[in-house]
Write the structure tokens for this entry.
Amino acid sequence: MSDLDMSILEKKKLDMLDAYIDTFEDKQLNIITILHYAQSVFEYLPKELQLHIARKIDMPAVKINGIVSFYSFFSEKQVTKYIVDVCRGTACFVKGSQNLYDIFSERLKVNEEGISEDGLFTLNSIRCLGACGLGPVVKINDKIFSHVTNDMVDDIIVEYREKEKADES
């Protein structure tokens, strides 16, 4: 049994993960592969799941957390449909990206994890998107919004909420 408080569905996922881990002779050597698989099953790697994996492969949990927090392709946060990255690199910051971040946070009503009240958006502050001449820049999934102003935030959010409604139809 695991430390995760599981529903039946979560228990099935955990059983799948355990069976996958058991296919490796040297589990610690394959930790990156195991973590990728775990994230594909659970969609993210919360601390409780990292602890379960640590116990399963006999590796210190702090070492697993170090791997998860080091590599950008792993996420400890729940994944939502739309990932909002507000660039706060120097060029974007001096052009007002902190204000943009604050407005997105307020409008989306994000919790301490950066997840919107409706569970549709995750708000992140990132160092640099490499589009300094276009700043301030906001990226939602793969779409870049350039020269974003405070007045554009509501329209951007509405665009994605309307897209979500259309996708549900």
